[in-house]
Amino acid sequence: MGQNDNVISCKNVWKVFGDHPERLTGHLKPETTSEELRATGHVAAVRNVSLDIARGEMLVVMGLSGSGKSTLIRCLARLIDITDGAITVEGRDLGTMTETELIDLRRRKMGMVFQSFGLLPHRTALENVAFPLEMRGQDRISRIARASEMLNLVGLGGREGYFPRELSGGQQQRVGIARSLAVEPDIWFLDEPFSALDPLIRREMQDEFLRLKGMLAKTIVFITHDFDEALRLADRIAIMKDGAIEQIDTPERIVMAPATPYVAKFTSAVDRARVVHAGALALAVEGRAIDGPALPAIETLHALARRILQDDRALIPVAGRDGVVTGLIDRAAALDLLLGPAA
Ligand SMILES: Nc1ncnc2c1ncn2[C@@H]1O[C@H](COP(=O)(O)OP(=O)(O)OP(=O)(O)O)[C@@H](O)[C@H]1O
């Protein structure tokens, strides 16, 4: 991944709702407070957000209800105009694109899945998935072929002729996912796509999603309220509060090196052992030679729990994929993380 291979870049992006947000364009500063905005009848749903999303990256956006997640994603897809700042997609400024160019960008490059499935009730699963291809003017035979392929991909082969009412919530969501994938988007926006699903189906959908993610290598922005879901899926997590991004970082750093007290509080209930990899906890070797088996650096402490419990060395070596020892884990510190500090 090249350093400048950013698919999406935001620079000082604001989205303000209220009486006359257009009057604020060009006048918003990082230090502009919510109180100042409120006094003029405005609220900043997105506040001075700058971020880059790399090609193939999966960015998960988290935050309490009302923190601005959906508004941010809608700005990125330019479903709504921003009040200030700039967003570029593959190097092109969204603000200067014509309506026709935008429609083309959304149809050809972007896919979106929202919490409500938004399926057409009088069309079958197959027709629903083929619908965006029809909008694009694709011929019937090729769109039906593509739609069946996508339904197979999400595990709904054989249900092409079902109507949405004949499918479960999870199956309807899969149809929604197949529909958004049919147009082969490079960039995929998902706004709490699994929140309406019961926990078992949700887990199944996450597995399915991880499989698709591995196969399709898309750039993905995914909103969720569920930290476990974020940990399973994210390359990086952005934590939002009052429209601003408090921290954008790897899951491991969000949990182990929170940038603000808010992030620390937000992540306080997360089981660190499921996030921290052996490599991250390892201390420098500093010339000490430790014989015997080493723990794989890429595994989480949770995955290594049994081995750490059974290994009675005070310092346990950690090795990279090539088997070379890269550091030592203090067993007592690892046990503290796994079991909580000794009473
Ligand atoms: N069309 C609108 N007009 C006025 N205010 C809005 C509008 N859309 C959003 N807001 C406000 O912007 C803020 C952010 O809303 P947004 O829906 O982006 O939050 P969210 O983090 O996605 O919340 P949730 O998790 O509940 O979906 C909220 O205070 C909301 O009331």
UniProtKB/TrEMBL annotation:
Gene Ontology MF annotations: ATP binding; ATP hydrolysis activity
Domain of life of the source: Bacteria
UniProt entry keywords in alphabetical sequence: ATP-binding, Nucleotide-binding, Transport
GO BP, one annotated term: quaternary ammonium group transport
Protein name as annotated: ATP-binding cassette domain-containing protein
PANTHER family: GLYCINE BETAINE/PROLINE BETAINE TRANSPORT SYSTEM ATP-BINDING PROTEIN PROV (PTHR43869), GLYCINE BETAINE_PROLINE BETAINE TRANSPORT SYSTEM ATP-BINDING PROTEIN PROV (PTHR43869:SF1)
InterPro entries membership: AAA+_ATPase (IPR003593), ABC_osmolyte_uptake_ATP-bind (IPR051921), ABC_transporter-like_ATP-bd (IPR003439), ABC_transporter-like_CS (IPR017871), P-loop_NTPase (IPR027417)
Domain ABC transporter: 28-267
